[in-house]
Design a protein that fits this description.
The protein is α+β, with helices and mostly antiparallel strands and 127 residues long. Helix content is 17%, strand content 30%. The protein is elongated. The protein starts with a helix and ends in a 15-residue tail after the last strand.
Amino acid sequence: MRKVLMFLIVMVLLWSADSQAAVCTWAAPMNYAPVSPATVGDPIPSAKIATITYKVYSGSSASGPWSLMTTTAAGALSATLLDPAPGGTLCCTLEAVLDGQTSAKASAACKAFPQKTPEAPSNLWIQ
């Protein structure tokens, strides 16, 4: 019985070690989008900044295509995304939503997840 229990514990630990998560983080916008000919928009009041929600998108390329992964709670500055398969790339972009108005998408951030290669065998011998 102990061997079975130990085996199950090891399997759970190995399974949980394989499931990874990438965290996409950002800074809240401090200004409204500028209206031409201005180059900087008016400041967003600090009380309003805390009410901004974000639509978080992921894809495998900085140019998309994008899939909506989640919409955050007000004031959140990060979102957790599942890693792609080894050898893949994960890209993240987002839109800020304030008072029903949605910003343009942010510049994408990407991360490559290398293919996992086993290390070389050891303790080789000839009898």
